[in-house]
Amino acid sequence: MTRRTLAPMSTLTHLRDAGVSVVLDLRDGRLPRILHWGADLGDLDGSALEQLAIASAEPVVIGELDTRHPVSVLPEPSWGWLGTPGLEGHRDGRDHATRFTVTETSHSDVGSADARVQRVTATAADAVAELELDVAVELLGTGLVRARATLRSTGHGSSDTAAVYTVDGLQVLLPVPREADEILDFTGRWIRERTPQRHPFIHGTHLREGRRGKPGHDTPFLTAAGTAGFGFRSGEIWATHVAWSGNTRWIAERGMHGVGLIGGGELPMPGEIRLEPGDEYTTPWLYGAHSTQGLDGISARFHRHLRSLPSHPSRPRPVTVNTWEAVYFDHDHAELRALADAAAEVGAERFVLDDGWFRHRRADSAGLGDWHVDEDLYPDGLTPLADYVRSKGLEFGLWFEPEMVNPDSDLARAHPEWIAQPELAARRGVLGGDPRLPLEARHQQVLDLTHPEAYAYIEERLHALVAELEPAYLKWDHNRDLLEAGSSATGRAMAHGQTHAFYRLLDGLHAAFPGLEIETCAGGGGRVDLEVLSRTQRIWASDCNDPLERQRIQRWTTLLVPPEMMGAHIGPPAAHSTGRSAGLDLRAGTAFWGHLGIEWNVAGADAVAPDVRAALQRWVALHRDHRDLLHSGVVVRSDLPEDGRLLHGVVARDGSEAIYGYVALDSVVDNPVGLLRLPGLQADRTYRVERLGPFQPSGAAMRAPTAWWERGVEVAGRVLTSHGVQAPGLNPEEMVLMRARAVG
Description:
Elements lengths: L1 E5 L5 E6 L2 E6 L7 E7 L6 H11 L30 E4 L10 E10 L6 E10 L4 E10 L4 E9 L11 E6 L1 E5 L5 E8 L2 E9 L3 E7 L12 E4 L10 E7 L4 E7 L5 E7 L6 E3 L4 E3 L2 E7 L2 H14 L12 E3 L1 H4 L5 H14 L3 E4 L29 H9 L3 E6 L3 E2 L4 H5 L8 H8 L14 E2 L5 H18 L3 E4 L18 H18 L4 E4 L9 H4 L4 E3 L6 H11 L8 E5 L13 H8 L3 E4 L6 H4 L3 H19 L3 E4 L7 E7 L5 E8 L10 E2 L9 E8 L13 H5 L1 E4 H6 L2 E2 L7 E10 L1
Helix pairs in contact: 8-9, 11-12, 12-14
């Protein structure tokens, strides 16, 4: 159904789906205001909506403006808003303030189920500032709300500087009620992504800005505002996510009037977004999720959304062997073939050749950008290895880092002007002096993909190699920040253009090679957002394969990312990143929950410990047996009272079965630790709960195991969710898997 009306108009619009209501106020020619975003309000007719608006009207208070105007999704100071403006910009200092008047609105309702989209669009203009604005607010079938804005310059002055409108910021903000008095977002670093941090939602602005040219390991990831003490299974929460793979701004703000806003947008670099007359700029989508059932309700909405996209992988996720921690840069042909043999033997289905296959790449200090197969290392090219891998029943995959370049490379020597550099450096280059390049990171500089020739080179190399080698999968890495990110072609900042160039490369590969899967990696989990996830089929959550660190990283990564899109690998006994050793059961039992992979020289595994390859084979088989559930069900997590214990699981959408993992990260004071409530099961069904793994639990923490652990137990779902089963005894750094199946 599609409806279209013309403004000025007097209308209140109610969008409803998946237990969520959004009530928009489009009256009086103002930009859209959200009167309600939260739990479903039921079927409200026009009269009821008018009464809701009356009940929501704010009073005029002494000492303030003579009239009171509710804040819109794009807040304007001209309507009395003294917090962060939705639009920040100017024409050489002029036209710095706006007051938009809506001239047209439309309402459309298309699609069905999770793919349904209810959209309200308002077109507005400011004749004085010579600007037009389109604001779109959508409610998706998953219950997610999303919004974005498009700004156009309509000025018709001369082409001098004063005619150009510079956008310093354009962000969308969504209102949250007073009950949302606590904020959760994230920080982190390399090998410690998604570290949660919480604080009260008090007066003032909680501002997070990312200037890395990618979200970064310290990305806020989500801004969640909720009732005090909210957890995975409890509390009412409103959360927002900025779907952009470049520089971002995240805002949580509350003023003395009690109005709370959360949201954000792109963070432009100085002078980066300049609108000539007729030009326009569109913000990233800002996504919002509401839940009355804690953080698990938030993640359920995001997972359903990603699973509804056409780009989402539809076939079982192939168990992947990656060569990085197996061989690093030592590309010995016999060893690689032996690794492919062992990969097939343990049940893997994909073999990915990581860094080190291209010209001059014997270490990470040279060769990046020389995207030709190294003739000395592979005199016959990579086709023989790719064919051998495929002969073992494995898909072939390949690693790239197309956005970076080593100064010690043929590419950098031939085209130093393709290296991203500040404007001053570009000028000096033009004048014949030596440019001042940004500081190196990992012996790398950034390749300026806004330079047409640099972009064309990378596009040609990617397409040529994929056409020649026919990989099923690309691992796409991005290992350094965009420090002083300027284009030598224009002398201007280029982080915005670089991000769009990255998207064009991904879109072009998918168009040219249907079925090709791409993983987004950025030194691990440094580029994870909904926009890149709409173009890729997998993320690399972290360069850390230490299972103890991974338990925490994966727990919070799946707040946004469904398990089937989260790469999780079984590493060697001693973790490359931390040096800590762990047994196979903990390593495999941790990777079991994601898109399973192996990053370990399994060709030599039997020399490490007797029968270890056979044990690994059993773990791979167990994952393959249950991945349909793991990769389609609802992710659940418990709020356990002990910091040293975790309980998480996946429940089938129809409630017929579930798998849970119980993990001992550390020792705890209580012994035994007590009952475990199993979340997500249906109250009116009976379930049989039994041990699923590991195959040889140590049992050292129990003199005698619990009765149900030995024989299984059949209990009503309402008992399992509200009472629970006795926790099995675990030593620190152990875990067990449990399965619950509906019976009768």
